[in-house]
Amino acid sequence: MTRRPPPKDRSAHERGRRATIAQSETRSPFRSASPDLVTLYGAHPVRAALTARKRKLLTLYATETTLPRINELARAAGLEPRLVDARDLERRLGPDAVHQGLLLEARPLPEADISDIVSVSGVVLALDQITDPHNVGAILRTACAFNVDAVIVTERHSPEFSGVLAKAASGALEFTTIVSVVNLARALDELADRGYARVGLDSDGAESLSTVTLSKPLVLALGAEDKGLRRLTRERCDAVARLDLPGPIKSLNVSNACAAALSVVTTRLG
């Protein structure tokens, strides 16, 4: 009598098959996060990085629909785009990220010092521990639009210059000189030694920005929304001015206040 082989454990086989599929779906094609890795996503940030070429570019990922629109620019920058699925980008960035089918891995921008600031517009921004990446990104976009010479940030209590911030900056990150300092008060002293006038912006400022004495070169200091300018920063300013607003609300989001202040400053300085 011939014995039949024992029946296969189909349930075990099915579990193994599903595990293999799950593993292949979760295996990321991207680099692991590290301090020297910057992730840029979205059309404007990625195109700006490919155009400016101020940082070392590593790998560009594009979806099938986006690839034809970025291929030529990528190859001109020395990159061969890698094809990925939109679901890969969502797993990497989160479902709410507006990636537009593009993700670029790169190195951080070269570090800049106060001595590297070249006076063109004669205006510099100093951000006093502004931590929200959306606000800082919007400020960078405004700074770039007004051709500000540099944006100074604190080494601590500043957002990562990648991802969300770069998306909010809409490409301005690649075209704005960013100086990171350990001590903002000391940096303001150094700027004063170089002939900069220092004006702090505060909704409770004693003078109006439209009438306060201004001269080039000028550094405009902006404080965080919840705390404003810190004491040492305020003490280093030659004047602390307010924006006079006609409406019942007398204070603005810091990025909006920055745009309004730069409009007043650049108009007055000519």
Summary, kept brief:
The chain has nine helices and eleven strands. With 270 residues, it is of the alpha/beta class.
How do the strands and helices of this protein lay out in sequence?
Elements: H1 10-26, E1 38-41, H2 43-52, E2 57-62, H3 67-76, E3 82-83, H4 86-93, E4 102-106, E5 123-128, H5 133-145, E6 150-154, H6 163-169, E7 178-181, H7 184-193, E8 197-201, E9 207-208, E10 218-223, H8 231-236, E11 239-242, H9 254-269
Overview of this protein structure:
The strands form 2 sheets. The chain has a 7-stranded parallel sheet with strand order 7-6-5-10-8-11-9, with helices on both faces. Strands 1-4-2-3 form a 4-stranded mixed sheet. It is elongated and about 55 Å long. Mean pLDDT is 91; it is low at 16-25. It has helices at 10-26, 43-52, 67-76, 86-93, 133-145, 163-169, 184-193, 231-236, 254-269; strands at residues 38-41, 57-62, 82-83, 102-106, 123-128, 150-154, 178-181, 197-201, 207-208, 218-223, 239-242. The protein folds into 2 domains: 38-106, 2-Layer Sandwich (60s Ribosomal Protein L30, Chain: A); 114-269, SPOUT methyltransferase, trefoil knot domain (Alpha/beta knot, 3-Layer(aba) Sandwich). With 270 residues, the protein is α/β, with parallel strands linked by helices. Helix 5 (133-145) runs parallel beside helix 6 and helix 5 runs parallel beside helix 9 (254-269).
